[in-house]
Amino acid sequence: MKKIYFDYAATSIKRKKILEDILSKADLFDGNPDSSHSFGRDAKKILEESRKAIAKSIGAKPSQIIFTSGASESNNTVLSAFKNEKIITTNIEHDSIENTYNPENTILIEASQEGISLDQIKEKITDEVKLVSVMMVNNEMGLIMPIKEIGDYLKEKDIYFHVDCVQAYGHLDIDVDAMNIDFLSLSGHKIGGINGFGVLFARETLPSFIKGGEQEKYRRAGTSFVMGAYSMAKSFPYMIEEREKIQDLKKYLLDSLAKSKLSYQINANPEETVDHIVNIYFKDYRSDFLLTYLDMHEIAVSAGSACRAGAVIPSKVVERIYGQERASHSLRISLGFENTREDIDKLLEVLGELR
Predict the structure, then answer these.
(1) Based on the domain organization, do 193 and 247 belong to the same domain?
(2) Which of these is catalytic: 13, 23, 240, 307?
(3) Does one domain contain both 79 and 219?
(4) In terms of residue numbers, what domain contains 50?
(5) Same domain, 180 and 321
(6) For position 67, which CATH number holds?
(7) 106-163 pLDDT, tens per residue?
(8) pLDDT of 43-96, one tens digit each?
(9) 307 an active-site residue?
(10) What's the chain look like in SS3?
């Protein structure tokens, strides 16, 4: 039985071509890129070429790119720097934001089925606010936030703008200058790169979150993960090539659901969500049951974020927008480059057997 993976929002299937490419020239990755000998120089060359490619992908300068262990660290770095300042964020951010900000200094904006609006930001702005942090695409429902509109508004204010772009990267166009973004977080493994590597775009210097050596020009200590940087840089062009396919798969999934006899509703308007995430409410079945049932048929989906140590917990985002009952009956289907229409057919066939 073929195993089917619909959990790309948790982590992407790894790109075998890139792994094979790395293994074919593994000796170039052997050295520490901060060493002065030839091994180090080989690794440094790859590291800096990867930095240039990643910077170009978001319209940034290579000098503005800081390599981290992942987007959680990137988010932590920014939020920790503003721990004692008044900030604005939303109630549907990733846990790495929610568990880092200081509640006493944080103004929370409550999202609706449409996400959040610029007007909600404007209503909360005061002279004390120093940072606004909003994700570009929600990781559980796929809602797309009005990042450019917020950035344009904040440009005229003395307020920094941080954006978690993990679920947007590769799926939507990102330009840090056009969007007036000051800090931005990315993750390599969400687009097919090796786990354990992330990026922080920083227009201005922040206090170093990881302390130790002089790596990343004193901005982030620790031996650089060269393979991680390389795999992320090489994955991005594939993401651009695959956009049309993912768009087609989303349309096919929605059309097939509409033709099926399943009792369901889509959480959020599909026209306002990113193409690779579809969150579905099945009123007749609890999500924990559906996860187990589908897993028994070698189909992998999720209920909410994968950042909860393997626990089957309903989506906090669906719960905060729609309520606990709906959250406990919802599944997230997230699409990726290895998925096919036949995979979707199999998913609906297996779900249809429950009737």
Answers:
(1) no
(2) 307
(3) yes
(4) 16-237
(5) no
(6) 3.40.640.10
(7) 999 999 999 999 999 999 999 999 999 999 999 999 999 999 999 999 998 989 999 9
(8) 999 999 999 999 999 999 999 999 999 999 999 999 999 999 999 999 999 999
(9) yes
(10) CCCEECECCCCCCCCHHHHHHHHHCHHHHCCCCCCCCHHHHHHHHHHHHHHHHHHHHCCCCHHHEEEECCHHHHHHHHHHHCCCCEEEEECCCCHHHHCCCCHHHEEEECCECCECCHHHHHHHCCCCEEEEECCCECCCCCEECCHHHHHHHHHCCCCEEEEECCCCECCECCCCCCCCCCEEEEECHHHCCCCCCEEEEECCCCCCCCCCCCHHHHCCCCCCCHHHHHHHHHHHHHHHHHHHHHHHHHHHHHHHHHHCCCCCEECCCHHHECCCEEEEECCCCCHHHHHHHHHHCCEECECCCCCCCCCCCCCHHHHHHHCHHHHCCEEEEECCCCCCHHHHHHHHHHHHCCC
